[in-house]
Write a structure and sequence with these properties.
alpha/beta; TIM Barrel; eight-stranded parallel barrel; three-stranded mixed beta sheet; 15 helices; 17% strand; binds 6-O-phosphono-beta-D-glucopyranose
Length: 460
């Protein structure tokens, strides 16, 4: 076999609570920011479809785990919902939620599928957002209590924990670019949210270690390698700044236990540093992880700014660089993201060379495509483009692993077509096609290909 992967490689997929569970206001669950935002502004969501309208994992979990088995998964990541487990954010634990998540975890284990559990995947309970969300340190403390409760309830069965999924995304979406609630555009507040998320992560890691649990804890980061337009120092500097803001603002604290000195200097220069308290430095040092999840979808290409900065304009990341469209780039036109397979290799070799080669795995990679029904052949979707997407990324991953990178698995986004935030069901990502009306599930060609690859631990 040409591309054989190391023994015990994790083959699986990822999803999140809010994007799959449905029953978003049943079973004792309280509202997240998404439920509230959707109720207020359904027009911002593709075709007016909100988080109550999903693949219904809350009801169909057993059937879906059977499908994961058919897809030859040996591991699977999903998230717990803070607002389902502790509806008022800080008080009583909801027994229905404990029962639901226990059933899911037990069934995964019974099917030989290792559960990977994320604590927070973009779904802030509204009660916590009303207190200021991540801008408020009390919410940070409440998150740590929630994490501790999860470790105590499920830590005997869950051995792979992740504090956050893509923590930079709620910063970008909620406080810079208006694609998450609370729709603020303010860099200083964004920096505070990012900083407090790192503190929340570190507190949860501390709590996990204090509990002497028998397992490992990490975080899932969306790493977008920053490529400069050219080797000109101005372009290189622009790419470095983008890397500091969007990658290293989380990567360095969780792997090195401290922020990059040049990120601190940069924010200081523009008077954007968040407020620190005594003890924060030690806390961040304690937030070092055992396992890094890497979500990779697209690179970030930048160049130096074409125009001078308006001194009266508020500071934004784009004060420091412009985006650059590489001629001839390969695009996923539905999502508007560049497809650049070598990026996955660049990420893991960078981790090997500059971060001590940490234990890591690809926790998300995938391709959302619109109107996939046009590819139906003999009753199922023949998504050859997705097979090509996955196999091309796997080839680069394989190369990195054969050159010594400590990458332990590959999880696809995602198992079944799911609800994609503002994009609703516009772009479909699954190995399994979902008919939203009938809830019928049909395995796509890519699902068959993946099952075969997982079963043989590689492909030709
Ligand atoms: C990742 C997230 O950013 O990418 C998922 O962890 C998300 O929650 C996925 O669904 C695909 O992005 P999108 O915006 O097309 O759904």
């Amino acid at each position: 076999m040409r591309y054989r992967f190391p023994e015990n490689f994790w083959w699986g997929s990822a999803c999140s609570a809010l994007q799959t569970e449905g029953d978003s206001l049943n079973g004792g669950k309280s509202q997240t920011t998404w439920d509230v935002w959707f109720a207020r502004q359904p027009g911002r969501f593709h075709q007016g479809i909100g988080p109550e309208n999903t693949s219904g994992f809350y009801q169909h979990w057993k059937q879906d785990i059977a499908l994961l088995k058919q897809l030859k998964h040996n591991s699977f990541r999903t998230s717990l919902s803070w607002s389902r487990l502790i509806p008022d954010g800080t008080g009583e634990v909801n027994p229905e939620a404990v029962e639901f998540y226990s059933h899911v975890i037990d069934e995964l284990l019974a099917q030989g599928i290792t559960p990977f559990i994320t604590l927070f995947h973009f779904d802030m309970p509204m009660v916590m957002q009303e207190k200021g969300g991540w801008e408020n340190r009390d919410v940070v403390a409440a998150f740590c209590r929630y994490a501790q409760i999860c470790f105590d309830l499920f830590g005997n069965r869950v051995k792979h924990w992740f504090t956050f999924n893509e923590p930079i995304v709620p910063v970008e979406g909620g406080y810079l670019y208006d694609f998450h609630y609370p729709n603020v555009v303010d860099f200083r507040r964004a920096a505070t949210v990012a900083y407090h998320t790192v503190l929340a992560h570190s507190l949860a890691v501390r709590a996990y270690r204090a509990g002497s649990h028998d397992g490992e804890i990490g975080v899932v980061l969306n790493l977008t390698p920053s490529y400069p337009r050219s080797a000109h120092p101005a372009d290189v500097k622009a790419a470095h700044h983008a890397d500091l803001l969007f990658n290293r603002s989380f990567l360095d604290p969780v792997l090195k236990g401290e922020y990059p000195a040049d990120l601190i200097a940069l924010l200081k220069e523009y008077d954007q540093l968040p407020a620190c308290q005594p003890g924060d430095k030690e806390l961040i040092a304690d937030g070092k992880i055992d396992l890094l999840g890497i979500n990779y979808y697209q690179p970030r290409r930048v160049k130096c700014r074409d125009s001078a900065v308006n001194p009266d304009a508020p500071f934004m990341p784009e004060t420091l660089f412009d985006y650059y469209e590489m001629p001839g780039r390969k695009m996923n036109p539905y999502r508007g993201w560049e497809i650049y397979e070598p990026g996955i290799y660049d990420i893991i070799t960078n981790l090997r060379d500059h971060y001590g080669n940490p234990r890591c795995f690809i926790s998300e990679n995938g391709m959302g495509v619109e109107n996939e029904q046009r590819f139906i052949e003999n009753g199922h979707i023949n998504d050859h483009y997705r097979i090509e997407f996955v196999s091309e990324h796997l080839k680069w991953l394989h190369k990195g692993i054969s050159e010594g990178c400590n990458c332990l698995g590959y999880h696809m986004w995602t198992f079944i077509d799911n609800w994609s935030w503002l994009n609703g069901y516009k772009n479909r990502y699954g190995f399994v096609q979902l008919d939203l009306e009938t809830q019928q599930r049909t395995i796509k060609q890519s699902g068959k290909w993946f099952a075969n690859t997982a079963e043989h631990n590689g492909f030709d």
